[in-house]
Design a protein that fits this description.
By secondary structure, this protein is mainly alpha-helical. The protein is built from nine helices and no strands. Helix 1 runs parallel beside helix 8.
Length: about 210
């Protein structure tokens, strides 16, 4: 059990330091709409990861052989990410300071959950990561059922915890963030999203 816990936390830390569309979404959400909103985004990310765990653990062979599924997911995911990116690029500069606006407008938590769930869920690299984890786990002859779920749970909880820390730190820095900064951050996030979307197209086409 100890081995499963240590390896799970280590793998969770590795996944947490990967910079992708989820990272930019968390930071931008926390700065613009607050820590609670970003925490719900993180919960959506956790839920999509948990679904991938179930899919890959119980259907590793089917998913590994169904290459067409990865291609479709790549094209659809790329299109969605590019759509998110364009929407960020088209955002106009806010007329009021971030702090004042946050007090008057309370973003819906449902949209935050769906944002985290969709951005993480449509990324085929996330699917491939969990397929590789499932393959690795199935090769561990010494792991029992308890070890399996302890391993997966420690990965998921570590990633979720690190995501909350990222969102919290970003929110603490919000006092130094100006409207002008948020305008250019949205542009940077938009370009990054489009870049990741094009990368997914490239992946699917390859």
């Amino acid at each position: 059990m100890r081995e499963a816990l240590v390896e799970g936390v280590s793998m969770g830390l590795l996944l947490s330091v990967m910079i992708g569309p989820v990272f930019f979404t968390l930071i931008q959400s926390s700065l613009e709409k607050g820590f609670r909103y970003a925490a719900v985004v993180a919960l959506g990310i956790l839920t999509s990861d948990a679904l991938y765990v179930l899919l890959t653990f119980f259907g590793i062979r089917f998913l590994a052989e169904a290459t067409y599924f990865e291609e479709v997911l790549g094209y659809v995911g790329g299109a969605i990410l590019i759509g998110f990116g364009v929407s960020y690029l088209l955002k106009r500069k806010l007329d009021k300071p971030i702090k004042i606006q946050d007090r008057k407008i309370r973003p819906k938590k449902r949209s935050a959950f769906l944002k985290g769930f969709s951005i993480n869920g449509i990324n085929p690299f996330v699917l491939l990561f969990w397929i590789s984890i499932a393959s690795l786990v199935h090769l561990k002859a010494g792991f029992g059922k308890v070890d399996f779920w302890l391993y997966y749970s420690s990965i998921l909880l570590t990633v979720f915890g690190i995501d909350l820390i990222k969102a919290f730190i970003a929110k603490q820095l919000s006092r130094f963030v100006t409207v002008h900064f948020m305008f250019w951050l949205n542009k940077a996030v938009g370009i990054a999203m489009i870049g990741f979307g094009i990368r997914l197209f490239w992946f699917a086409a390859g």
